C-alpha cells in the first residue's frame, strides 16, 4: 500500500476529477473519474442501449473513450502544471459488452518529463477484462490552471 497523498497531491487529484466532470464530451458519455493515487485512476461508466452498435453490444467508441481517459488521467496525476495530450493509443478488444457497469482502470507505466506511458484495462460487472489499452501522452503548452474545469 502506498502512502496517503499529500495535501497538494490531493488538491491536484480533486482538480483533475473536476476537470473530467466539466468536459463537454461527458454530457454524451456520462461517467465519473476517481483518482485513487499518483499514477492510478478509474473511470466508472454504465453501458446501456444508447451506445450499442447494430449487433446489440457496446460500440468501440466506448472502449476507446474509457481506456484512453483512464490511462490519460493516471498519467496526468504525475503532471501538475500542464494538460497532457494523447499522442498514440493502442487497443485490444477481447469481449463484447452489453448493459451494465464498466470500470476502466489506468496505471502510469513510465516517463515523467516530456512523454508518459500508461496502460488501462476495462472490467465488466462480472470482473472480467473486456479490453485493454496502452497510450503515450505528451505535455502540452496548456497550463492546467488555465482550464475552466480545473480547480486546483
From TrEMBL:
It holds the Pfam family 4HBT. It comes from the Bacteria. CDD domains: PaaI_thioesterase (cd03443). Gene3D superfamilies: Hotdog Thioesterase. Residues 56-131 form the Thioesterase domain. One of its GO terms (molecular function) is hydrolase activity. Keywords: Hydrolase. SUPFAM superfamilies: Thioesterase/thiol ester dehydrase-isomerase. Its EC number is 3.1.2.-. InterPro entries: HotDog_dom_sf, PAAI_dom, Thioestr_dom. This is PaaI family thioesterase.
